[in-house]
Amino acid sequence: MQVVIITGVAQGMGREVALRLAAAGDAVAGFDVDAAGIESLRADLAARGSDCLLTTLDVCDRPGILAFRDAVLRRWGRADVVLSNVGIGFFGPFEEVDLEKASRCLEINVMGTAAILQAFLPSMRERRSGKLVAVSSLVGQIPFPFESIYSASKFAVEGLVLSLRYEVERFGIQVALIEPAQVSTRFAAKIHTLPPEGSPYRERVRRFIVRDEELIQTALDPAAAAEQILRVLRAPKPRLHNTVDAKSRFFLALNRFLPTRLRDEILLRQMNIR
């Protein structure tokens, strides 16, 4: 039995991973700001006879995260895997971005990831065992237009994990990144907003939104994405970079091998904003 910590566990990929871990007999601990989603998941896991610890918590609540960690360690004495899955999207032309709202995205996506990984790191170091896994994104390596703040947050998560690896591998701790392109949730669609009339970006943003929402319709569903994430969580030696869908594998391959100008041309045509 593994003890697995999951943030952003109430919906989407986090929930699907939790359900699959419970079905396999693993213990699941997690939190989310979605109180109704937490209660629903608790009922689902209880119906499966799962050993779980779920709570409603904001990832920006540093004392709350430490209290959650302490509760986990009191109950099981260890954490085998931490999956940082919490995150929010942010969309809009950079020139028109409200930087106060943008700071909230960076706080949740970057510092939220840092907080949960840091909280469980000491106990893993003492045991000389554990996995720290963070959900990043395709845009953590390939920036997309109109997603400057979100891209910045995921580039930061990638940098955090890549740097952390050098520090913790000597203690037997493994790190990994999950880098999906799109998953068929409402994650992207619910942040899509057109700039106001008169904005010099309005028409290109409109075309981008239409194309993005077309792509969401054929994207991987959360259950299929969860199966790929489980492979990483259970791997004896997980790869550092991990994709969950063919689209991200394709674009990341282009990013590695194509000249920047050609890669950019493909991206702009793909999103219908050439």
SSE topology:
Elements: E1 3-7, H1 12-23, E2 27-32, H2 35-47, E3 52-56, H3 62-76, E4 81-84, H4 99-127, E5 130-135, H5 148-168, E6 173-178, H6 202-217, H7 222-234, E7 241-242, H8 246-257, H9 260-270
Parallel strand pairs: 1-2, 1-4, 2-3, 4-5, 5-6, 6-7
Helix pairs in contact: 1-7, 3-4, 4-5
Q: Can you describe what's shown?
A:
With 274 residues, the protein is of the alpha/beta class. It has one domain: NAD(P)-binding Rossmann-like Domain (Rossmann fold). 52% of the residues lie in helices and 12% in strands. The chain contains nine helices and seven strands. The chain has helices spanning 12-23, 35-47, 62-76, 99-127, 148-168, 202-217, 222-234, 246-257, 260-270; strands at 3-7, 27-32, 52-56, 81-84, 130-135, 173-178, 241-242. It has a seven-stranded parallel beta sheet with strand order 3-2-1-4-5-6-7, with helices on both faces. α4 (99-127) links the parallel β4 (81-84) and β5.
Q: Numbering strands along the chain, what is their spatial order in the largest sheet?
A: 3-2-1-4-5-6-7
Distance between the termini: 51 Å
Query: Number of DSSP helices?
Result: 9
Low-confidence stretches: none
* Domain count: 1
CATH architecture: 3-Layer(aba) Sandwich
Rough shape?
globular
Radius of gyration: 19 Å
Element-level helix/strand string: EHEHEHEHEHEHHEHH
Look at the structure and name the CATH superfamily.
Answer: NAD(P)-binding Rossmann-like Domain
Secondary structure class reads: alpha/beta
Largest sheet: 7 strands, parallel
- The first-level CATH class name: Alpha Beta
Percent in strands: 5-15%
**CATH topology name:** Rossmann fold
Number of strands: 7
Proportion in helices: 40-55%
Mean pLDDT: 93
